[in-house]
Design goal:
GO terms for molecular function: transmembrane transporter activity. Keywords: Coiled coil, Periplasm, Signal. Its main location: periplasm. There is one protein chain. The strands form four sheets. The protein has a six-stranded antiparallel beta barrel. The longest helix has about 60 residues, at about 120-175. Helices cover about 35% and strands about 30% of the residues. The protein has three domains: about 55-80 and about 285-435, Elongation Factor Tu (Ef-tu), domain 3; about 85-115 and about 240-270, RNA polymerase II/Efflux pump adaptor protein, barrel-sandwich hybrid domain (OB fold (Dihydrolipoamide Acetyltransferase, E2P), Beta Barrel), CATH 2.40.50.100; about 120-235. It is elongated and about 165 Å long. The two termini are about 75 Å apart. It is α+β, with helices and mostly antiparallel strands. Strand 12 and strand 13 form a beta hairpin. It has helices at about 20-55, 120-175, 180-210, 215-240; strands at about 60-65, 65-80, 85-90, 95, 105, 110-115, 240, 245-250, 260, 265-270, 275-280, 295-300, 300-315, 325-330, 345-360, 375, 380-385, 390-395, 395-400, 410, 425-430.
């Protein structure tokens, strides 16, 4: 069996160029120099790593603050008048004149579009002639036919009286034997004929009198003619399209010479009145909304300008596709730069809490569950602290129980933190700490 004999390390060569005496001195002090360097390195490593080993890692912590807090619901939408009016025509025709321009303000009753009206005017004249004819027919019935019918009744009554007198005389002569049966029958036929003529004349008189059938027919014809004239006049009126209310024309899709027909919008009018902001709110915030809540809004085109608004309408239905609720806010004093359909951002103040204890929302674990908690700094240690939350918004959460102003909490995204871990906390305030997205 052979054993390996350890070979001593080769002594470090002295620096080149030393004299013989210096070389002997170098050999004597070299071991002491090497040992000193090792000790210095160990001391430097301890100075660098010692605090981390002994005091724990250095982490950023947020200070819990206490101040007035407003919970807000933020959403975006657009500017809209309470309603829009699509201006169209009710008759088919050719556009003669369009005296207004898009973007122009108009008054109620101001002419917007004129159509060619010669044919419509001729229809009105024809309808007026039909009315005159119906009135003349009714007048003729009352002034001519009724008196003639009355005269015919009187004449028929006289004829009947004469026929009856003749029948009485012939009956006496027949009883005395002076006339035969044939002559008596002829007289009786004459009486029957006179009675029939009287009944016919009376019927004609009854029909021609007020309330009779002839007068009813004539009066109905007059009413029909009047209705036709009204239709013709209304169609003539439709040839001139006027503004139904004061407002601003936000769209125009018609030019002179166009052939227009019902069902096509020629212009869109935004009536003067309340300006509203229409926004979509996530349905999760529905329980926080209430009519009358104040809000601040800004147009995307003018982000530095803030305008006051008030919640005026909450749609009773929920948009299934987007999971949102449409709400409308009144703008009591709209600025001049606000335009129809302009995009706006709205900040609705749904709750206010004076002197609330606030913690950054990104420091709360399980915030949407029944038992939220935070890592609280307690005497240089991380402690799991249950909390009870209240209002939330703007990157902050109200703490109803579990923390006090001045406490330090750790962001939830801080890695490597566990309950009881020793650490060194560097505090920043909730206002200066940027909330996590």
């Amino acid at each position: 069996m052979y054993s390996r004999i350890p070979v001593p390390p080769k002594p470090e060569a002295p620096p080149a160029g030393l004299p013989q005496r210096s070389m002997r001195l170098w050999s004597a002090v070299r071991p002491h120099v090497a040992g000193g360097l090792a000790v210095a390195a160990l001391l430097a490593a301890a100075a660098w790593l010692g605090p981390r080993w002994l005091l724990g890692p250095r982490v950023e912590a947020s200070a819990v603050v206490q101040r007035d807090f407003v919970q807000s619901v933020v959403a975006s939408g657009h500017v809209e008048a309470p309603h829009r009016v699509n201006i169209g025509t009710q008759v088919t025709g050719t556009v003669k004149r369009v005296p207004v321009a898009e973007g122009q303000g108009v008054n109620a009753g101001q002419v917007l579009v004129e159509l060619e009206s010669a044919e419509l005017a001729a229809a009105v004249a024809q309808a007026d002639a039909a009315v005159s004819q119906a009135r003349a027919r009714l007048r003729q019935l009352r002034e001519v036919q009724a008196p003639v019918a009355a005269q015919a009744v009187r004449q028929a009554q006289v004829n009947l009286d004469n026929a009856r007198a003749q029948l009485r005389r012939n009956t006496d002569l027949f009883n005395q034997g002076f006339v035969g049966q044939a002559a008596l029958d002829e007289v009786r036929k004459a009486v029957d004929l006179a009675e029939s003529q009287l009944r016919a004349s009376q019927s004609q008189l009854d029909s021609a009198r007020a309330g009779g059938s002839d007068e009813a027919v004539a009066a109905t014809a007059l009413d029909q003619a009047l209705a036709g004239a009204a239709v013709a006049r209304s169609r003539l009126v439709y040839a001139t399209i006027a503004a139904p209310a004061a407002g601003t024309l936000i769209d125009r899709a018609v030019e002179p010479g166009d052939v227009v027909q019902p069902g096509k919008a020629l212009m869109v009018l935004s009536p003067a009145g309340k300006t509203q902001l229409v926004v979509q709110i996530d349905e999760r915030n529905l329980q926080s909304l209430a009519l009358g809540q104040k809000a601040l809004a800004s147009a995307d085109a003018y982000p530095e300008q803030r305008l006051a608004a008030e919640l005026a309408y909450i749609n009773p239905g929920v948009d299934v596709q987007r999971g949102s609720v449409e709400v409308k806010l009144d703008v009591p004093d709209p600025p001049s730069y606000l335009r129809q359909d302009m995009t706006v951002s709205v900040d609705i103040q749904v709750a206010r809490r004076p002197q609330a204890v606030l913690v950054p929302s990104d420091a709360v674990h399980d915030a949407d569950r029944a038992d939220p908690w935070v890592f609280k700094v307690d005497r240089h240690h991380a402690r799991r602290q249950p909390v009870r939350l209240g209002l939330r918004g703007g990157g902050l959460s109200e703490v109803l129980d579990g923390l006090h102003a001045g406490d330090l909490v750790l962001p939830a995204k801080t890695s490597g933190i566990r309950d009881g871990l020793r650490l060194r906390a560097a505090a920043v305030t909730a206002e200066t700490r940027a909330p996590s997205p």
